[in-house]
Amino acid sequence: MQQVWKAFEKNPITHSAVHHLIAIAQLISDRGYARITDVATRLEITRGSVSITLKSLEKDGLVRRDRNRFVLLTPEGQFVARTTQMKKELFKQFLTDILGVSEEAADIDSCKIEHLIGLDTGHRLCELMHFFNEGHPSVDNFLQALEEFRKKDLFCEHAGYQTAVEEG
Q: What single DSSP character describes residue 166?
């Protein structure tokens, strides 16, 4: 039996560290600079926590500091922040527009998943969402058929999902 779940442990960057990179990218975009204090405020954590994470991110070559102690993203850090943010936005759109999940639940779930899916999966999701956004008549037919199927709720009932949720 393949131990796929163990691949989660091999993720090269933690969820928290990714959010540090995204916060830095957003601050630089909004203000033109990022300081430890700004990152801490944005993430609602202590400056000490940010400092610890930044040391690890510096060691991994994802951030650096300039002579004024401003935090900068390396090209690799920019790539991780940008692709992670894009995967989150795509997954959130998929959850809301295709699956009909509430905006709040989609925001939470897309945040949980954003850095766990690989680049290829993110690319495929991008293609799928682009296809859905193109307005092709088959998309409307699919969404209508999906809605009709949801009304029946046969699969999830058959698979025992609802029972598991209720018992959980």
A: H
d(CA 66, CA 72): 7
Spans of the chain below 50 pLDDT: 1
Nearest of 14, 71, 82 to residue 37 by alpha carbon: 71
Query: Which is it for strands 63-65 and 71-73: parallel, antiparallel or unpaired?
Result: antiparallel
C-alpha–C-alpha distance, residues 145 and 122, integer Å: 25
- Strands, E, within 47-146: which ranges? 63-65, 71-73
Indicate the pTM of the whole model: 0.81
Beta bridge partners of 63: 73
Tokens read off for 97: 């527009």
Cα separation, 141 vs 145, in Å, equals 6
Q: Could you read off the pLDDT of 24-38 as tens digits, one per residue? A: 999 999 999 999 999
Tell me the chain's radius of gyration from C-alpha atoms: 20
- The span from the CA of 159 to the CA of 161, in Å, is 6
Cα distance between residue 79 and residue 49, in whole Å: 23
